[in-house]
Amino acid sequence: MLYLGIDPTAGRRPLNYAALDGKLNIVAEGEGKPEEVLTLLEKYPDVICAVDAPSMPNQGLMAQAEVRQKFGLPANGKSWTQYRVCEYELRRRNIKLYNTPAETGSAPTWMKAGWKLYESLRAVGFENYAPDSTASRQLFEVHPHATFTVLLGHIPYRKDILEGRLQRQLLLCDEGIRLPNPLDVLEEITRHHLLRGTLELRGLRTHDGLDALASALTAFYAHTRLNRLTLIGDVADGQILLPTAELKETYENPKPQNPNSQKLE
After folding, report:
1. What angle do the packed helices 144-152 and 207-224 form, to 10 degrees?
2. How far, in Å, CA of 139 to CA of 126, rounded?
3. Phi, psi of 174 (to 5 degrees)
């Protein structure tokens, strides 16, 4: 079984992908076009695939009275109607993410690229994931920020800063993915490299690459650790799979203590 994670993008930026085997070795990773990923899949008949994009447009469930009452929202209210159920479930826990529109024409380009990717994957035999399915090729939706949050137990650092990349790669190492220890790159941060502009941080993945790896890890969980999974949302407007058996009611953003602030007696 191959465990594939895909982080689609749109425009000139290539998508990012990562593939793991059953021992969490990295079989393939990189940037490319959707066609390159489909070519990779030709060698693997058995694949669990996690895609970092909405699986479908907003179906309007959060505007339905019975759904709103389930969450304690005013039955006839308009709040949260621009979100799918899975997106509401994450945002109310302080896990921030996009909202998916009902009209495909008004969706951002990256979402449209994601929907096109889902179509391409289904055309080569992928079916919607189900924990009890025996299908050889399955796919589902993920959101890497939510994945990192539930594995850490709190909101991570921003992914576009060095601390965020170090934190995410260290977590993936702890989860068993065969990656270089990201703390080793700290040895490269020297006065010489900084002043000369030659700092490379070899072995540290980009934030897009880390998102793809986190998605692949979730695919691994979906096949091997069914007791540590949560499908959040409603099948009717798309579910997001998370690698945790239980969600917290809220996830905090830890704030470092200031050693200079002392409580006065």
Report:
1. 70
2. 6
3. -65, -30
The alpha-helical segments, DSSP class H, found in 133-261 are 144-152, 162-174, 191-196, 207-224
Q: What would the two tokens of residue 261 be?
A: 């602030």
Considering the domain boundaries, does residue 41 fall inside one? yes
Does 45 map to a domain? Answer: yes
Six-digit token string for 176: 């068993």
Position 138 in a domain = yes
Residue 254 belongs to some domain of the structure: no
* 108-133 pLDDT, tens digit each: 999 999 999 999 999 999 999 999 99
Per residue in 163-186, pLDDT tens?
A: 999 999 999 999 999 999 998 888
The pTM of this model reads 0.91
Number of domains into which the chain is organized = 1
Structure tokens belonging to residue 61:
């469930």
Residue 9: pLDDT over 90: no
Mean pLDDT, rounded, of the chain: 92
Q: Which two tokens stand for residue 175?
A: 């989860």
- Residue with structure tokens 């951002």? 108
Per the structure, the complete domain to which residue 83 belongs is given by 2-153+215-242
